[in-house]
Amino acid sequence: MLQYTYDMMAENHPIYNTMQSFEQERARIYEQIDAGKLDFGAHRRGKELLAKITRLKQAIAQDVLADADVICTTCLSAAGSRILGQIDFPIVFLDEASMATEPLSLIPFMKGVSGSISCRPACADRCLKSSQVAIIGDHKQLPPVITSDAAKFGGLSMSLFERLVHEQYLKDSTVMLDTQYRMHPSIAAFASKQFYNSELKNGTTSVITGKPLKKFDPPVSKYLTTTSGEKRNVMFVDHDSVEMSSDDKSTVNYGEAQQGHWYHRAVCGSNSTTHCLSSRG
């Protein structure tokens, strides 16, 4: 992936070495000025070099961006980057939108929406329809991380994604991806019933038999076998470990982690054919 980063593509640009030579010459000039070996008349040459460097950087950025079909960035970098300041985007995809605060979500739209984005909730649909925008997320999963009680009270704990879903301003443009491909149907059943009104479908079953695919069979373990010998895919483990605060103000539960690690090894350790994560570390 490194080859697709902006820095790497800029370094491979035909005029990058010329720009670097100007930067090195400029650095030498100011080192000599500071050492008293050149008078301040050399500042003129330094300013000339800076102007050339700036023009070359802009030319490199224009070429790299113009040659890209897709540009990936964080929400903050979309507005704070001088490189991206040269370009607007006809289409904006905001992924994991349910984990971003509403102000953070609005930043990339400034690069793709023609017109004002500072709109009232009642006109959110008209503002967003002025450009091609896809907001992708799942408000049933993790919300934005807000540590300030005042910010939570002010509404920042609700993402723009969730607000638009609840208030139905974009009801006709909302699509639910209703098929999961990651887990055994018995594991997905709880989430489907609890969060998705039993609308979640399974892409992990055979189109012929309707039964779960073989690769989703549970590993052989006494912890995943009922007293009647029936295999199960879900196991609940109760523990009394206490959650505590760590130095960086987040919370940790060492006992819970140890329990999870132990059961992971117990279930996966005796199953050489089972696709389990490594228990090392």
From TrEMBL:
<keyword id="KW-0547">Nucleotide-binding</keyword>
<feature type="domain" description="DNA2/NAM7 helicase-like C-terminal">
    <location>
        <begin position="156"/>
        <end position="259"/>
    </location>
</feature>
<dbReference type="InterPro" id="IPR027417">
    <property type="entry name" value="P-loop_NTPase"/>
</dbReference>
<dbReference type="InterPro" id="IPR041679">
    <property type="entry name" value="DNA2/NAM7-like_C"/>
</dbReference>
<keyword id="KW-0378">Hydrolase</keyword>
<feature type="domain" description="DNA2/NAM7 helicase helicase">
    <location>
        <begin position="35"/>
        <end position="148"/>
    </location>
</feature>
<dbReference type="GO" id="GO:0043139">
    <property type="term" value="F:5'-3' DNA helicase activity"/>
</dbReference>
<keyword id="KW-0067">ATP-binding</keyword>
<dbReference type="InterPro" id="IPR041677">
    <property type="entry name" value="DNA2/NAM7_AAA_11"/>
</dbReference>
<keyword id="KW-0347">Helicase</keyword>
<comment type="similarity">
    <text>Belongs to the DNA2/NAM7 helicase family.</text>
</comment>
<dbReference type="Pfam" id="PF13087">
    <property type="entry name" value="AAA_12"/>
</dbReference>
<dbReference type="Pfam" id="PF13086">
    <property type="entry name" value="AAA_11"/>
</dbReference>
<dbReference type="GO" id="GO:0016787">
    <property type="term" value="F:hydrolase activity"/>
</dbReference>
<dbReference type="GO" id="GO:0005524">
    <property type="term" value="F:ATP binding"/>
</dbReference>
<dbReference type="InterPro" id="IPR050534">
    <property type="entry name" value="Coronavir_polyprotein_1ab"/>
</dbReference>
<protein>
    <submittedName>
        <fullName>AAA domain-domain-containing protein</fullName>
    </submittedName>
</protein>
